[in-house]
Amino acid sequence: MPRLRKSNTRGVGLGRRKTRSGFRYIDANGQPVHDAETVERIAALVIPPAWTDVWISPYPNGHIQAVGTDLAGRKQYLYHEVWRQKQDERKFDRALELALALPSARRRVTADLRGPTGSRDRALATGFRLLDSARLRVGSERFALEHGSHGLTTLLCAHATVSGNTVSLDFPGKSGQAWSSDTTDEDLAKVIRSLKTRGGDSRLLAWKNGREWRGLSAQDMNDYVRLRTNGDFTAKDFRTLHGSIIAARALRDFGVVKSGRQQAKVISAAVAETADALGNTPAIARASYIDPRVLDRYRAGEVLDSRGTQPEPALRRLILGDD
């Protein structure tokens, strides 16, 4: 495994110029790059043709290999494979740490949900409960304004309906994909029913500051997640944790099979089920939201056990052997 060096994306790097047949790579002096290994390395990065202002690491072991601006004006990064592997390992380990923190965090959140009507903590607790139960993305003001796609903090009252103790969400999510989910929770339903009285075009997650209602931001939610879990977690960690749980449950329900071909089919089906629940493609679900150790355990004949009612301890037992 190569030792990585920290990339300085504002420093000297390589670039590219469009040609009739594709792109030509250039050094800091504007001269063509002829070194075969360097050209091969850059080609292997598969930098999207639409990116502009492309910076390419001059070093094969730079932790960031390329930076560019996509069509939406967002800065995008391509990382060294070793760096991505390390980050993924940290991400899945962090999700398991969240699983350990959730029982006590949920009790604190329930207390906030039962707090004063219109309070900030009550709105934040509502968001936490939805992250934990509906597996929502946290939301982006920019995406809501420019693309009409919504997440947790940009939901409107019209996106939620309440029937008895069940909260149903229906809204256009990332990339315009329709999102639909149902959560049965008495405390949550009571709060959502109250918030919806402000009208369909109002932000769902809001709190009353004097005579005004103020919406919550993604930063507000992430700060609250850290506060209630007493850990360095964010809204995205919920999707990673629940993605792994959904896959582990699906593999358990499909049952253990012995042949490699049958295992591959079952794993593909479990990944597809997870992708559907998260609103992702199977490729993204497998790469970003399913702990690879869940799949490794399945190949070894181990599946999620059924002890207790909470899936988080069961996931930790499966992966870490916790009692």
UniProtKB/TrEMBL annotation:
Residues 83-286 form the DNA topoisomerase I catalytic core eukaryotic-type domain. Its EC number is 5.6.2.1. It catalyses: ATP-independent breakage of single-stranded DNA, followed by passage and rejoining. PROSITE patterns: TOPO_IB_2. It comes from the Bacteria. This is DNA topoisomerase. Belongs to the type IB topoisomerase family. GO terms for molecular function: DNA binding; DNA topoisomerase type I (single strand cut, ATP-independent) activity. InterPro entries: DNA_brk_join_enz, DNA_topo_I_N_sf, Top1B_N_bact, TopoI, TopoI_cat_a-hlx-sub_euk, TopoI_cat_euk. GO terms for biological process: DNA topological change. Keywords: DNA-binding, Isomerase, Topoisomerase. It holds the Pfam family Top1B_N_bact. Residues 22-70 form the DNA topoisomerase IB N-terminal domain.
